[in-house]
Amino acid sequence: MGRPRMLIDVEEEAIVSFVIYKKKAGLPASKGEIEEAAITLRLRRSPDAKPVRKTWYSRFRDGHSELDTAFLKAKEQSRVAYEEAGVEDTKQWFQQLAEVITKLKAGASECWNAGQAGVRVEILRERVQYLISDSAFSNGDITLEWAKHFNRHSWEESATVQHRQLDFEEWFGCNEHLKKSNNPFRQYDEPPNKHEEKDLVWRLLVIDGFSGHGGFAFREYCIKFNILVAFLLPHSTHILQSMDLGVFQPMENVHQKKLREALRKGNLTFNRRDFAEAFQEIFNEGFTAAHIISGFEKLGLFPPTARRAVTYLLMKQLKSKQLVDPAYNSLLPPETRFSAASDTARHVGERYHGIFSSPTRQGLRHIRNIVNKAILPEDVITKYVDDRRTRVEKRHNQRKLGKRAKPVGDYIHNVCLQELRNQQEEFITEGREKDRKSQIRSTRSIILREIESLKEE
């Protein structure tokens, strides 16, 4: 009998497919994401289902040994490490971006970029208390709601859709919520209408590695509606995020301008109406077509080119190497000054040993000892600098450790649901074959031991 299972076989297969998809995309699923996916599937089956137990994750990993193979180790890296050793990764990322845009025939209207900008609004009043909660909302749920709005809006703005005069609900057979407009109680797991590969309308979404972007529901939703997600390199948003350069910076400038105008007029407080009007003006002046297009072109997202990003990284590396103005090199002491001083003291002592008095010879020996002691800290400093440079490069390249995952499609993120199912079937078949061979070996060893015992008797 035993306790009832938390997930049925179909649900466990979906979880395994999700983990494999994340692994092939270069972002291995964490424990929280896997548990979130399990809770999501349980709630779909029963709205009153409880969360999974604390020991469920360990038992799930033990029961699916195929997930331990070819697992990419994604290591977090600092912005400094990326700037010092991220040139080759940046070139490869832009090369993949250019290949996928060419293959999917995506134009400027099908390429999108999303980012987050913090806006803090406070209402100061007497007897008002603020309660801060770290878990008041779920980033994954917010991202999923945003993805539904983005799905409908990006479809209507696509030049391909406008040219072919395609309707969203007629093309997919449902709305962005996977429901029928005339029957909101009918829920679909996937869009009912299927089309040939050559007729599909793909959209490219370039986003950063925000915590909510790797959720199970968000990635599943994007796959169903042919939205290809391309993640930016870790700690590269200040270089590759077009929203930061094209939109957020002009919006911050307008924000500062509005504040200075209010202070000049003596307005030290804002009511809700004034704040709403000012915020709408700031938003309208920041989010303009010219600013958005300028951000894409300057950063090289469309048309894809790595020239600007690579130039920025090379300039950063050159600046870090040229910490001192070259004009000051003549004023710096020579690197071999300690060795030259030690050799000079030894040469003087050996040549004029018979001329100098005993105190003078003793003083020369002290000079040589002091110079030799000064050489040791210089060597330690040089070794420390070289070791730090080596550790920084090792830290950057550490995320490349492990066996490289082989994507099914031509692009690392181009994975469909059927490919995930086929991949899962291959993993299951290989696992069963390994178990069968293991059982044969164990049975053979038992038989050999029995034969040896019979011979001894």
Automatic annotation (TrEMBL):
Sorted UniProt keywords: DNA-binding
One Pfam family recorded for the sequence: DDE_1
Domain HTH CENPB-type, residue spans: 1-70
Entries under InterPro entries matching the protein: DDE_SF_endonuclease_dom, HTH_CenpB_DNA-bd_dom
Keyword match Protein biosynthesis: no
Organism domain of life: Eukaryota
A GO term, aspect molecular function: DNA binding
Keyword DNA-binding: yes
UniProt name for this protein: HTH CENPB-type domain-containing protein
Organism expressing this protein natively: Fusarium oxysporum (Fusarium vascular wilt)
